[in-house]
Amino acid sequence: MLNEQQNSTPTLDVSIVIPAFKRPELLRKALISALAQDLAPEKFEVIVVDSSPDDNNAAIVEALKQESGRVALTLYRKAPEGPGPSRLLGAHRARGRIVAYLDSDCQATPGWLAAGLARFDQDIGIVQGRTLPVPGQPIGVFSRYVQIEAENPRYEAANIFYRRDCLAEFDEASKDLTPNDERPTGGEDALMAWRVKRNGWQSTFADEALVYHEVIAISIWHWFYEKRMIMLPWLVREVPEMKGVFYLRYFHDRAHACLVLLLAGVVLSPLSLAWLAAAIPYFVLRASESSNRLRGIMRLTRGLIYLPRDLIAFGLLVVGSLRYQTLLL
Known about the structure:
Order of helices and strands: EHEHEHEEHEEEHHEEHHHHH
Structural class: alpha/beta
CATH topology of the largest domain: Spore Coat Polysaccharide Biosynthesis Protein SpsA, Chain A
Strand content: 15-25%
Distance between the termini: 37 Å
Low-confidence stretches: none
Shape: elongated
Largest sheet: 8 strands, mixed
Number of strands: 10
């Protein structure tokens, strides 16, 4: 079991744990930011848990060891299972009383560690930090990044701190549905946080614990096919507390609720134009969304663009709902 490898007595204030899979240049930037923290070097360490099929990330770590000064930089390698098992392995090998998780596509600001540590007291087990897109990087429709500006029930592990004692009793973490993909299907971070909270630990948010997330360009196909949808019913099954995040508890968002109304109209009145009335809320909603940069009559075309994307997402949610016997549409 993983916890057989755990260090019994913390000797440092904090251990930064970075799960990595491919993307060596992003890992390099993450490590440089981790090593540049304005905390005394004898108070923290950096641990990379790499699941890559090649040695590129290992070479990055080895090269940066020459520049890490007095900060301990350690690499562990394991088979690809997704970031959850990698994060837990890092926690079990950590020497810090606090484990600070940073994703390999993120860059921590110099005061990140100190700000996160400052929020812990005897009842706090989790501190979630603020995450913003890297300043100056262009953001468009086909961009992916994480933005977190308040505590939320997903507890994304791109930027989050745990008291190591909270994780000590966990023998395993949830494996990802697509462990060999550069973008995990996800959900394991929320499950870990809620397991800790169910054990009685409190959580809080540290606005000053700031991390910047890389803005990553995605293909049109990956924009249309959002694979993470299939995981959400599983997450709701495992973490019922998250139902409140979703629209009316059973819909991914308002657009999906309107889409269900549209589909119901098509099914019930396929040979008449009555189903058009059921379609109006969907197209009006998509046209009125604040992110819509189109003007005039062109705003209405946004619904036509998003319709196939929403239908694919709806299909994935249906498959996930059936597979995990938990309804989310």
